[in-house]
Amino acid sequence: MRNEKTKILVEAGVMLALAIILSYLRLGRMPQGGSVSLQMLPIFIIALRWGVVPGVLTGAAFGLMQILLGEAWIATPLQAFIDYPLAFGVVGIAGFFRNKKVVGIALGGMLRFLCHFFAGVVFFAEYAGEQNVYIYSGVYNITYILPEIIIAALITPMLLSKIKGVSNNQQQEQEYHTFKLLISVALPLLLTVFLMDEFKLEFINEFLFKGVIGLAWLITLVANIRDYLKNNFKTPLIVFIYTQLVTLAAYIAIAVFTLFSS
């Protein structure tokens, strides 16, 4: 028991240091904080290897280090707590789903999103201008958190299988389908939001951003249809394909309504 605690402590320290390093290897930086990086990976690894408590503590420690290292965007002490120790601490809740890694990663990532979303609505409302503050905060934060969740969902299970030295094909196949389902839902919804002419963000290269999401959506749709046919129609059509088709229909309906109402 003591050896296990020592191992957890040492591993958590290493992963904390790795998370700090990865936080500097980022893709861009948003005006009020936030960027795409691999900083959540070490937190997910600790949580999925050792459980919720080590994961939450490691995440909270990382958030605190972001403040101490001057990497935090601080408006008030409460906002700093919500956006950093709390937001990264809840990432460790992924440890509740150690046998369903992709589900745990998605949950931990979305809980972090909710923390940033709440902080954005309460403390950064003035940056929304004339836009709806809830939409502004939601889109602002999902812009960088969703890519981090996707990257973590792709990489973390592979890293854990290498660490454990075990390859469970059935579990990996299940995680692949779970991940693909999450992407099937997230991509078209995100694309729909950004195709709405009413919502514009100066800090996003709209053409590039929409193009990347649209291409990823198309690839996912093709992969879903291929698997649907390959499995001799055993995969429910409504699960893998309707997520895109219904969202596309919703966007067309919105566009038509806007056209006729203007």
UniProtKB/TrEMBL annotation:
Q: Does the keyword Membrane apply?
A: yes
Per UniProt, the keywords (alphabetical) are: Membrane, Transmembrane, Transmembrane helix
Transmembrane ranges, per UniProt, are 6-25, 46-69, 81-97, 109-128, 134-155, 176-195, 207-225, 237-260
**GO MF annotations in UniProt:** thiamine transmembrane transporter activity
Tell me the domain of life. Answer: Bacteria
Return the Gene3D superfamilies for the record.
1.10.1760.20
Q: Give the range the annotation lists for the signal sequence.
A: none
Question: Which portions of this protein are annotated as coiled-coil regions?
Answer: none
Q: Which GO terms describe its cellular component?
A: plasma membrane
Is Methyltransferase one of the keywords UniProt gives this record? Answer: no
Pfam families attached to this UniProt entry: Thia_YuaJ
* Protein name as annotated: Energy-coupled thiamine transporter ThiT
User: What species does this protein belong to?
Assistant: Proteinivorax tanatarense
**Record lineage:** Bacteria, Bacillati, Bacillota, Clostridia, Eubacteriales
Gene responsible for this protein: thiT
